[in-house]
Amino acid sequence: xxxxxxxxxxxxxxxxxxxxxxxxxxxxxxxxxxxxxxxxxxxxxxxxxxxxxxxxxxxxxxxxxxxxxxxxxxxxxxxxxxxxxxxxxxxxxxxxxxxxxxxxxxxxxxxxxxxxxxxxxxxxxxxxxxxxxxxxxxxxxxxxxxxxxxxxxxxxxxxxxxxxxxxxxxxxxxxxxxxxxxxxxxxxxxxxxxxxxxxxxxxxxxxxxxxxxxxxxxxxxxxxxxxxxxxxxxxxxxxxxxxxxxxxxxxxxxxxxxxxxxxxxxxxxxxxxxxxxxxxxxxxxxxxxxxxxxxxxxxxxxxxxxxxxxxxxxxxxxxxxxxxxxxxxxxxxxxxxxxxxxxxxxxxxxxxxxxxxxxxxxxxxxxxxxxxxxxxxxxxxxxxxxxxxxxxxxxxxxxxxxxxxxxxxxxxxxxxxxxxxxxxxxxxxxxxxxxxxxxxxxxxxxxxxxxxxxxxxxxxxxxxxxxxxxxxxxxxxxxxxxxxxxxxxxxxxxxxxxxxxxxxxxxxxxxxxxxxxxxxxxxxxxxxxxxxxxxxxxxxxxxxxxxxxxxxxxxxxxxxxxxxxxxxxxxxxxxxxxxxxxxxxxxxxxxxxxxxxxxxxxxxxxxxxxxxxxxxxxxxxxxxxxxxxxxxxxxxxxxx
Length: 640
Prior knowledge:
By secondary structure, the protein is mainly α. The chain is 50% helix and 7% strand. The chain has helices at residues 149-170, 181-202, 211-220, 233-236, 239-266, 278-291, 293-301, 328-364, 367-372, 374-377, 387-391, 394-404, 409-430, 436-455, 465-502, 520-535, 539-547, 551-568, 585-592, 594-605, 624-629, and strands spanning 16-17, 27-28, 33-34, 47-48, 51-53, 56-58, 64-66, 71-73, 78-79, 87-88, 92-93, 103-104, 135-138, 141-144, 306-308, 314-316. The strands form eight sheets. The chain has a two-stranded antiparallel sheet with strand order 1-2. A two-stranded antiparallel ribbon has the order 3-4. Strands 5-6 form a two-stranded antiparallel ribbon. Helix 7 (293-301) runs parallel beside helix 12 (394-404).
């Protein structure tokens, strides 16, 4: 009824109806129902505005969807809006038969999202795992395999076989304490390859890399011998065969070295000096394992790199469609990977044994044994011969960080940063490489890798709440650890001060010195004996001895002569400037009390030769062949 007193009939809007004439207001449809048109005349026109289940109408809100009579939360990778069908996000996949059963694609660019079953570049499988038979993925598309694919891989295998034989002769040249340019070049190349392999493992972190970085990590896969990225699927076919070839590559190379060595003894035309020697063959095999240890570790752990799909299943990071401990393919791959991992662990156990036994072998003059483990110790200073064994498992630890936190890329990044920092700190403390420039290069590379990892944290996906809580606890634990370290250091310094001043102690603190300080009486005896030995040594022979020392030993000799010369007041022994704030009592003692000094020297001369410090190492004279190996350093003590 309007103001003029006349009446007007209007159609009821959608969602309402008028089952009687003359109503001033239309009736609303029951909850969850609507008419979908105007002018409805009864309640039967109200239909379900959502999903109908056993006579009940369900209309799910945002972030939920209808499933079997209930509104359930949408899985990760689905966008659910009220009244709309769920949409698959890019980077996720669902089959047309089960459009709400979502899989996560790694890398995400192979799944465009949208309609169920959509794959980019012509890929097939769940979820977009591979190209059709007879095709290989190149330049973002599945393309037919070329006729030369098999021939190319056969040529590469033949080249590798020749390279291993040539490598035997290159890696077994005479080694000395001095560093040759060839040695420096090969060390730089091996360190560069190790760095590129580390970057390749970083690329395994499931970050959404920008295109400017994604192609770099794809190139780094070449240094991890990722044969899938090189079109090997055209040769081997299914993932099981491809993985089997990857696992067999290292054992095959080692077997070939043994076969090649046998051939050099069987073929009569090969000169005797060109035949493989057993110790050098073992060293070459060890060098091959050492160079490929990171690659083999990553290959062995591939079947264990399982991440979670939104639907609750777990797939391999490299082969998303192979489901962990569900697919029969995974069982075969897991067994192969476990066998390879056991082989790597056995090799590392042998390396640890060789490193521990090396000092005893050097003392006995066992040049054959030292030659067999040359690949472990030849690149490092003789007093840090163990560093090669210490460095060996770094690649395994980097790959293991991917396994331990497959669903949490940020944690993977933290673990990798921790491993890189651990090795960097040890390297900077011991300075192990024979050439100082190599130590600087190694330290710089480690710093750059850590900075790269910290910068790449910008690409970390959003962290789940439970992970944030765990990281908060870890941060608090680190803060507590910092306080404990500071308090412990303060306590140690106070204890040392009380010991020196209040209790009258004269020895340096072993804790502050990071080790036991040599006994000065023993050193005095050794120096006196050293001077006697030098007195009868011709100048020419002395120059020859010094020429055989490494750059570190020459600098150490330089520093010792300067320090002792400064204390006894003999300026002719000082080879560098030296500033000291300690008392000059030792100089005055030398200048003003010659009789006392003579008596002291007599006392030192009369000290029995068997006197030695508890931590002193047994000096030995190595054989001529051992000296050529440059392994005289480990001869200082015997561990086994």
